[in-house]
Structures are given as structure tokens and as C-alpha cells.
Amino acid sequence: MTRSVAVLACLCAAWVQANSAAGQDVPPVYRTWRVYTVRDGLPSDRVSALRFWNDELWVGTGGGLARFKAGVWKSWPTPDDEPPATITGIDIDPDTHDVWFGTLGGGLLRMSAECMSRFTQLNSGLAGDLVFAVAVADKRIWAATNGGVSAYDPVREQWELFAERRADETETAVVGVARQTDRLYYAAWCGGVASIDLKSDISGVLDTSETKVDARPTASDSTIGIASIEDTVWRVTPTSANRVDSKSAGESFALDLPSDAFIECAAFRRPAELWVGSDRPASGSERTPDWCAEPTRLRGTSSHPSMRIRRQRRSRRC
Amino acid sequence: MNPTLRRLTMLLSLLAGGVAAWGQALPLYVGREVCLGCHGTPAGPPACKLEPIPAHDRAYSVLDSPQAEEIAVLTGGVGSPTQDLVCLGCHAAASDVGPRWTAPTFQIAGGVQCESCHDAGSLHVQLKRRTDGDDAYSPNRIQRGERGTCKRCHTPRLSHDEVLKRGFGRAPADRRYKTPTKVLVDRDGALIVCCEHSDSVLFVDPQTGSVVREIEVGRRPGAAALSPDGRTLYVSNRLSNSVSVIDRQASKVVAQIAVGAEPHGLSTDSAGKRLFVLNTGQDSISVVDTAAQRETKRLAAGVGPWALVRDDASQRFLVTNVRPNPTGFREPHTTEISVIDEEQAIVERRLDAADANMVQGIAAVPGRRVTLFTLMRTKNLVPITRVAQGWTTTNGLGVIWPDGTIDQVLLDEPNSYFADPTDVAVSPDGRIALVAGGGVNEIAVVDIEKLLATIRDATPHDRAEVLPNHLGMSGRFVVKRIPVGANPRSVAFSPDGRRAYVANALDDTLSEIDPAKLAVVRAIKLGGPGEISEIRRGERLFHNASISFGSEFSCRSCHPDGHVDGLAFDIEADGLGMHPVDNRSLRGITDTGPFKWEGTNPTLQRQCGPRFAVFFTRLAPYKPDELDALVRYICTIERPPNPYREAAGLTLSQRRGKMIFERSVDNAGQPIPENQRCVTCHANAYRASAGKAMIGSTMWLDEPAEIDLTSFQHEEEGQVGVVHFYSERLTMASFDIAHLTGVQAGRPYLHNGGAMALEELWTRFNAFDAHGMTNDLTRRQFNDLIAYLWTL
């Protein structure tokens, strides 16, 4: 729980600071942090997903969904879950304002006007009930699952499955989805990154000739997350983040995470700033979760942002 | 055909096929001529022993005949038989897949062709060899004409016998009925009437009562709405899945806007920039940009959104839904009132009307911030035979308060029910409400102040538990019942409140009511034929509750628009909750006998005859001539167009699903026993066959069945599916093979309504492949199969 609270604290604080013009010059790690817990209205302290949308912060937890809006928390338990499934990904349909979120074991859920409906591998075309990430793109709902990427068209009520075998996955579990203008990228657990042309629905693995990124996994360099901002998409491994979108010029930067680290979330706050949440410290064997990222700039030929992991002491309330 | 030309044509067709198939190696239909190019030559491969069959050649052309048109009517067809998939299913090859999957050499006019039995042949032609035994996705598979293939079409058809042997034909009057289903009054007092049967909108002069103009719109217009400036009229076309835009100045349709399935209620926002259209058949709300005249987004509604009204104070629309939300098996239902935020065009809240269903008409009460809606309270979880105690269906009104709280009251009286309340209108002064009782041919006049006082004076407990069920309360606020014409479905006040008009659907009239006198002062004829045909008589019987004890319900009460109310019923008095049966649609069922889930009724006459009186109505059954008329009408209940089927034909996923549906080998390459193939039981154009099948759906609540499990020849134990492990004493029952036309709109599924989604038939209830071999399917294959089923 401590780890999760810390992750939440970091990211909530980032959100708070992002809305504070006065704090722009000070790295987030040095600012004042406020920790939100169940005492503030969260359904659980085990926070596992975050989504900023308009003036709202949506939080997925191990006990349900919560929204932070105008300084007020409101929460909704996931229905019929015993124990409650952990929420892993959240996105909002800009047309309908429906909130779509994925759960570990409970499938994909839609909260529309505060009423939830559940899509599972038993009652729908969802590929698997372990949903790792959710994205709304091209008027479809994309869910990264243990069975591949499921795309649901709520108008046509049709499901498509993308489990690209040429993506060199060692298994079909998809741990992340990220969207660009006309392309959706997904990362296979310990595998490569594949993309889908949203206009044609043709998917394929990214190859080195296209992206200058070797999508094939190695023992020490396997995909465990994916993140996007503006028109860039980044593949996250325990040791690096590589830009993999079609306009990539081979940018990458190093991360200092152990190879067995499980990245809970990787998200850009702004183009120069990638935030990574993990269940491992940045280095060494100490199992403290209290670390966060300090944004910096890449030195060298590329002008793209980079970052390095900096360990923080618990006393810094990071 | 010249051999060189034939080869060139073949090459072009295959090239085109590759495009059509999006690069996937799925075969196209090439047509008879290409097949005979090889199989019709002496030196070529074996020719079909059945060729030529002149009747097969003519199979398509005969659809363009008056007799075919009558047959199509008896199958619930909408439009020409040459476009109807049920007709084409046996009269033309490749009709199921659509033009997207045919090569240029294919001509649908060729009727029943080689590929009708042998499936699409382009890849077979390409490879010039026969390779049976491959899996369903194998690119070079060519089906054999197996036993039973002919029987898929060559079986007795009641629809055909009625026309070809007994000379059935619609009466001339059947083509001239108007069937007014919606009346509205514009700001100047002019009447606008949607006429479902004539596919038109009538404009009526309220002074003279004469029809001054009739404008043809789409199929089965069901509702209409004016733009805020009154210059544009929007009409929803239930069976065209569209909205007609009428320029009132020019008196013509200027646009057709495609929306979702079976659109009904619609309304513009206060600025007239957006149009909200309720897609009753797709549980959604289309948001239309009125300037661009196109749908911009679609919102999720409840189940079967029907009508909407704007609450001016909150700038919200309140939307009724006909069917209840899915609940757990044998659990009480609740129906949603959806709330739309007009500014953002999103569904903002979802209110629950507990135990209510068939929530249809809705009207705001001016000056009170209260909204009224019509409802039924169907007691589906207790034996329906308790009609005499008011325990089958009660009918009433709902009241929505500003905070979203809902109260319910009944309009019924003991032994004098107010069946099928379908619409409500409130006088401009907010004093009275008029409720159309479609099943009793009456308008109930509700004193709104007395109604609200009755609710306010009740305790919280009584408001929750007593008022919604009390048959003796309506006398406090129903001040009169006014007899009107047959099957009143819509009611509207004039802007000054001095007149109200009622659309009497089944006698083609409007009843003009003087609210001061609470009486009908004039009947306005809308121009129907003025005579009652047999079908029309049956339609009236179907919609009239006088057949049931106390006029509690009509056939339509459970089968709105000939479809379903989304409930599973306890029918017989053999214990509470025993033997639940899912309600079944009546759309296009003529040729799908036997009837009843147990399959014990070979004809609709038997289904709707004396047993109907014994189990349902508890009154004298229909007389023979009434029964014939009723059945005749039921046979004409129309099948709506399928919203999941594109005009070009099946999508790639749907096409792959069709191949799964028709496969004869599993993913391991092993033959699938014939009784475990989808297409064996769901064989004909309706995707059904006459008979029953054991699909492992027996449960502990069902009647003892024919076969004891101990004698059932199968090595696996617990043959009967996941839910049936509760009892070891079970015997295995077989049930009627359901037809699959319109299956996407038929939730819930199984004989007892135990499957809330189509997928669950196989993910939850087919552990041992008793309901077809599906457990070897990959996830994508399974999704493809579902996608195909939704196109039927």
C-alpha cells in the first residue's frame, strides 16, 4: 500500500503542480506534496491507474474508481467484484463522456452517467479479463488484455481482436496501448511493439527499417510499458525508453531499473518529462519504493527529452 | 462462352476478389458460368448430376411476381422479395454474403446455382483441384453437397402454401390503411400525423378536419418533431433506420438522415442545432447535426429508448425506455429513464423505475417541474395464471420529481384495467393529463393536483410499496375514462389547451377531445379504406385487452411492435419461479414452427387458441374466425432491417464467422459430427429447422424431460451445461430450435432467458459442446462467429 500511495502522491502532485504557474521553474520533486488516501474519499489506497481529463483527475484503485474534481473526491465501487479487481487503465470517450476502465481479472467496464456495465471474455468479444490498459481512439475502445488488443466499436457493437503473431511476443499479453493521430501502438509483455493503422485496421510489428528500433525482445531489454505524448510514442523497457512512432529518429534514453522491475505506469506530463512508476527502486537491492524521476535533457545530437532515475529518500515525501 | 474470354474473365474476377477480400484468401462466388466452364465440358471434371434444373434457374426471377410479394408479406418481409434476405436465402446464391464477396462473373439473377450448395468457388477455380477436409479458413476448401443441403430449402413452407395452394392475398384495403401512430400540433394549431401503414405524414386542418397534404416519407414513420422555428419537420422511420427532413414551406422531403436501428422518439435541442433520435432497436441515441444533416455521435441509452421530453428548467431531456435493463436470472427488473444534458449532448444520469417496464409516453407538467410517464408493471416472476388477482400486468403512471426521485401509481381499477398505456400529454395549464390506453380504447383523464397530493400524502413506505401496486387508488385522481377509437397510441394538446387530439391507430381516425367537457366532440377521418380486412381485424385483436380477464393485458403488452418485452416468464401455476420461459419475438415467425419452447404447438392457431386462454387470459378463448384473423396478422408482423449488415454485404470478420457457422471440421482437422454443426439445426433461410434439440440447457427449474441422464450416451458427466450442476437428478430436455433471424435483438437468450448475452450461450452454457462444437474456437474465431450471427 505504501508504494501505491507514493506513486499516487507523486502523480497527484505532478498534476497539482502542472496547474500551478508559479511552480513551473521548480522540479516537481522539490515541491510540496500532498498525499490523498481513503480518508480523503479514495475507495482504496492501492492506486493503480490515473487519467487527467479536462479539469478532472480519474483514479483507478484496488477498490473502485474515483474522480477528483474542483477539490472534491467522488468514488464508485466496481460492481459485483469480490474482492474488487484492481483498475489498471482509464480513458474517457470525448463524445459521450463515458469512462472506460480496465481491471485485472474483471474485464473492461464502462461507467456511463454513473452506471457501470461490464464486458468480459464470457459475455462479449473481449479477448481476456486481464486488462492492462485502455485507450479511446478512432471512436473505438482499445483494451490491452492478456489475449491481445481488443477493439470495441460501441456504435456497431462489434469487437475486433489484434493479436499480431509477427510481433515477436513471447505471449499475447498486451501491457499497454498508446495512440498517435492515425495509429495505435501496443506493447506486448516482454515482447515487441506493434502498431495498428486506425484507418485500415492493418496491424504489424515495427521493424528496424521503419523505426530504427529493434522490437525483438532480449533477456535484458524487453518491453514493459508504452507511453505517448503529442505525436511521439515511446517504448519503455527496464533499461531504456525508445521512441518508436513512425517519425522517430532513433531517440532513446536510459533508465536505471532492474531487469525484473514491473513498471506500473509510464506517462508523460509534458514532452520533456516522462514519469515512471515501478515496484522496484532505481538500483541496488533496497526495496524502498520511494523514488521518482527527475526530468532532464538529453545531451548529444538529439534535442528530444531524456530523463534519468534519481533515488529519493522517504523523508522527502516524494 | 469463348474459352479465352472465359479465362480472362476468370482472371479479372479473381483479381477483383482479392480486392474485395482485403487481401485475405477467402473465396468469392464466381457464378454458374464459371463452374460450367470446366464441369460442363465432356473432357472436364465430373459434372453435377443435378444440373440443369430449370426451377433453380428461375428461382430469382420468380421473386419479381405478385405471388412472391404476398409470400414475403407472410414472412414479415419489408420491401421487395428480390431484396429480402429470407427470400433470397433459398432463391439466389451468395445472397447471405452480399455483393462484396462476388466476382464480376457472378449474377444473382442466376438464382440457385452451383455455389448455393458448394459454397464460393473462386479459390477452387484458381487451384483447379478439390481439397476436402481442410479447416474452415482453408483457402482452397470447396464444400461438398452434403445430405440435408437440399432440405434446407426444400421443406414445407406455410407462407408458400398459403399463397400458392390456398390463394391467400392481401385485401385491397390492406394497402390503404393509414395507421396513425403519432399526432402533434404545431404552434398554429395545425395537426401533423405520422401514419405507419401508409409510410406518410398527414397535415390536417383542425378547423375543417380535412387532410390538406400527405407527404411520403420512409418506412413506418413512428414519431415526429418540429424545429424550434416550426419550419422543419423531422420524422423517424422505424423500418428505414432513418429520419426524413421535411421542409414545411416546400412541402417536401429534403433529406434523409441515417441513424440507428428502429428510430422512434426524436426532438431538437432548444436552439435547433442538434437532433436527438432514439434508436429503439439498438439501445442508443443518435445525436444529429441538423445543419450538416448527419449523425455526429451516438450515446448509450437504456434498453429500447422510446420517447423523450425536454425539462425546460433543467435544460435536460428525459428519455423513456421500453424494456428493462438486464438483471440477474430470475431477479426483479428495473427500467431506465435516461437523462440527457442538452448543452453537452451526453447522457448525464440514469434513473431507475423499479419493477416497471414498457415505459413509453412522457410529458412534462408545466409550472411544476414534474414529469409524468406511462408504465406497466409486469409480474413475470410469479405464475401468469394469477391474472384474476391482478398479478399478471398492471398499468400506470410514473412521476419524476426534480431531484430524480420516481413514484409510481396505477391507473387500473379492480377488474377494469387500463391496459397498454402508451402515451401521455399534459394540458398547457398543467391541470390535467390525458393518458392513451391502447389496449382498452380509452383515454384516462388524470387530475394532476390530486395525483400529486395522493403521493405527497403517502408515507415513504406506502410510496415505495403500496402505491405502485394498489388497484384501488386510481379513483382518487383518474376523473374519467373517455372512450375513443381503436388502439389510441398518441395524444397531444393544442397550444391553447382548448382541444386535445388522439391518434387511433387501428381505425385511421383522430378523436378530438374538449378538455372542458372531457368528451370526444369529433372524429376526424384520415382517409383509410373504412373497412376491416382479416389482417386488420387480427391486428385489432392483437392490440385489444378485452381477451384477458379484466382487460388486464393484450398480446401487444408482451409483444410491443411484435417483438419482445425483454422478460422471461413464469407461466404455469406449479410453484413460484418454476419453468421460466423467455419471451420470443413474433417477427417473421410464420415458417418457424413448431411453436413454444417445448415445441409442442405445431401451429400458431394452437399456440394462440384455447391453451392461451387457459394459461394466460383466463377468459373464453378467441372464436375460430377471430383466431384465424389473429394468426393472419401475426404472420405479417414485419422483420426490421438488420443494422449490423452493410449494403455491400458481410465484413471480413462476418464472412469468417459465416465460415465457422458452416464448417464441418474443427480446428484440429477432425470432422465435426453432423449434430454438432451450427448449420445442421440452423439450416434454412431463417437459420432454423423444424424440430427440437438437446443443447444442454436443461436446468433444475425445468419440467422433467424425455431422456434420463443416466441413459444418455456420453462419456462426460454433467452434459447439461454449467448452470445445471446443481442437481444430479436432472434429466435432459430438448427445446425448440430457435430461428436466428433478428437474433441480435432478442436478448436474453436460451429457453429460460438465462443467457444475458449471445456470447454466453457458448462461454457459459456449452461446456461439453452440446450446443454445437465451439470449444475449439480461438477468440478471434469466436468473435467472428458472433459478428456473423448478428447479421442474420
Attribute tags:
heterodimer; A: 318 residues; mainly beta; Methylamine Dehydrogenase, Chain H; four-stranded antiparallel β-sheet; 24 strands; 42% strand; globular; disordered N terminus; disordered C terminus; B: 792 residues; alpha+beta; Cytochrome Bc1 Complex, Chain D, domain 2; 19 helices
Would you kindly provide a written description of the structure presented here, covering whatever features stand out?
The complex is a heterodimer of chains A (318) and B (792). The radius of gyration of chain A is 19 Å and the shape is globular. Chain A has two helices and 24 strands. Chain A starts with a helix and ends in a 7-residue tail after the last strand. In chain A, the strands form seven sheets. Chain A has a four-stranded antiparallel beta sheet with strand order 1-2-3-4, covered by helices on one side. Chain A is mainly β and 318 residues long. Chain A has a domain of 155 residues: YVTN repeat-like/Quinoprotein amine dehydrogenase (Methylamine Dehydrogenase, Chain H). With 792 residues, chain B is α+β, with helices and mostly antiparallel strands. Among the domains of chain B are: 167 residues, no CATH class; 98 residues; 138 residues, Cytochrome Bc1 Complex, Chain D, domain 2. Chain B has a four-stranded antiparallel beta sheet with strand order 1-2-3-4, with no helix packed on it. A four-stranded antiparallel beta sheet of chain B has the order 5-6-7-8, with no helix packed on it. Chain B has a four-stranded antiparallel beta sheet with strand order 9-10-11-12, with no helix packed on it. In chain B, strand 13 and strand 14 form a beta hairpin. Chain B starts with a helix and ends with a helix. About 7% of the residues of chain B have low confidence.
